[in-house]
TrEMBL record:
Family indicated by similarity: Belongs to the peptidase M50B family.
Pfam families attached to this UniProt entry: Peptidase_M50 (PF02163)
Keyword annotations from UniProtKB, A to Z: Hydrolase, Membrane, Metal-binding, Metalloprotease, Protease, Transmembrane, Transmembrane helix, Zinc
Entry keyword ATP-binding: no
Highest taxon listed in the record's lineage: Bacteria
Gene3D superfamilies: 2.30.42.10
Chain ranges of the Peptidase M50 domain: 18-435
EC supergroup of this enzyme: hydrolase
Name used for this protein in its record: Zinc metalloprotease
Length: 449
């Protein structure tokens, strides 16, 4: 029987970041619809952050529009007079069209109103990536800096990558940023990986079904990781020592006489000593010392190692504001290209949807457990471009579905009936709710698995 342990402080930080990020995205998306609707003199009855079935957390009417905050944190909406939307206001549609209604406006104006939210999300993503590049630059771990090579999991070993290998490239393209290895394999459908082993270059073939396995594996961890020595950075106040004490800079050499060279080996060995007192040999300066300490029930000794990024050396590229503009544009389009490729792989069967789909739980879990503004804005930028892409898909109930019907009207000169639009909206909402329920079910299955 397994026990699900939840760190509620971590959950709280992740939830706060998720709510703030999506509040920004949804508010600005709906603002795109709101501004264009008012531009063409349409009446906007409601502007809501989050949905408000039965009641609202807050609302205030100003002019013709009711502004409010709902209690169901799954998006938001603007209710434009004379438009078939998620409100399904059939009574209004039975009345004769009024000049201020959406349905009374020319097709080209309705099309602009429909894509207004998507345009704002694209612009927001571009601005965010430009801002991130300008403020924080680009920080990454060069593959060439990994002097100890990598350590692997079973998936990497299954295709022939070994502990200590130095990753050189993918499909004979040199790998600069180590963190992009798995996305290179997944999104560019790599056929080979080049590694250096014992001074020789080895070409490792990537099987055709590897992308699907890697996608599933990424739900848990990854396939290769930086290898580095176990050097103490700081010690927890809760650590229990019975002889001596670990100190900053100590390099761990052995546990109970079992020697190791790298942190991953140390981490594996200490799992066999849970709830035990162990003897640890460390190198301190040019001398050695012996420490006795308790490994707790979770297999932890109560200290933090120096990160591989600190030990191996990250590279930071800084940009001026003008230099950040093209870099920010490129980062935005790269994110969009990666997402579109991932969607394509799901539809072509190269990646199993159940290993890639996720609900708000998966989305919220992508945020770090400690507040980090750089990561927050990076994720917000990514989700903004994803939101734009998802909304422009030609699916009824989404902006893209409404835009498609409007384009057909502009080409054929025939406007779909209100009844047809009502049925299309219902079908689209059922499809979307079904997909959301499926994704939520997958997340619960992963949590309790």
């Amino acid at each position: 029987m397994s026990l699900l342990v939840i760190d509620w402080s971590s959950v709280g930080v992740k939830t706060a970041q998720f709510i703030l990020s999506f509040s920004i995205l949804v508010t600005l998306h709906e603002l795109g619809h709101f501004i264009t609707a008012r531009w063409f003199k349409c009446r906007v009855e409601k502007f809501y952050l989050f949905f408000n079935p039965w009641f609202s957390l807050w609302k205030k009417k100003k002019g013709e529009t009711e502004y409010g905050i709902g209690w169901v944190p799954f998006g938001g909406y603007v209710k434009i007079s004379g438009m078939v939307d998620e409100s399904m206001d059939k009574e209004q549609m039975k009345l004769p069209p009024q000049p201020w209604e959406f349905r009374s406006k020319p097709a080209w104006q309705r099309l602009i109103i429909m894509i207004g939210g998507v345009v704002v999300n694209v612009l927001l993503a571009i601005v965010i990536f430009i801002g991130i590049t300008w403020v924080w630059g680009e920080e990454y771990l060069p593959a060439k800096n990994m002097k100890y090579g990598v350590y692997t999991d079973s998936l990497a070993r299954s295709i022939g990558i070994q502990d200590g290998d130095h990753i050189l490239g993918v499909d004979n393209r040199p790998l600069d940023n180590f963190a992009t290895l798995e996305s290179e394999i997944l999104l560019k459908e790599a056929k080979s990986i080049q590694v250096e082993r014992n001074g020789q270059t080895v070409n490792i073939a990537v099987p055709g079904d590897f992308a699907k396995k890697l996608s599933k594996n990424k739900q848990m961890s990854g396939m290769v990781f930086p290898r580095f020595p176990a050097i103490v950075d700081s010690v927890s106040r809760d650590a229990v020592f019975s002889k001596g004490q670990l100190q900053k800079g100590d390099k761990l050499l052995s546990i109970n006489g079992r020697t190791f060279e790298y942190y991953n080996e140390f981490n594996q060995i200490k799992q066999g000593y849970k709830d035990s007192i162990v003897s640890i040999n460390v190198l301190r300066g040019i001398d050695t010392a012996t420490i006795r300490a308790r490994v707790d029930s979770k297999g932890k000794l109560g200290f933090f190692t120096k990160s591989p990024y600190e030990l191996l050396g990250v590279v930071t590229k800084n940009y001026s504001l003008m230099q950040s503009i093209p870099v920010g544009f490129n980062r935005c389009w790269e994110m969009l290209d990666r997402y579109v490729t991932a969607i394509k792989q799901m539809f072509t069967g190269k990646v199993d949807p159940k290993d890639s789909l996720g609900s708000v739980i998966s989305i919220g879990n992508t945020f770090p457990s400690k507040w980090d503004w750089e990561k927050f804005w990076t994720l917000t930028g990514i989700f903004s471009i994803i939101l734009a892409f998802m909304n422009i898909l030609p699916i009824p109930a989404l902006d893209g579905g409404h835009a498609l019907f409007t384009l057909i009207e502009m080409i054929t000169g025939r406007k779909p009936s209100d009844k047809f639009m009502e049925y299309a909206q219902m079908v689209g909402m059922i499809l979307l709710m079904g997909l959301m329920a499926y994704a939520l079910g997958l997340d619960f299955w992963r949590l309790f698995k």
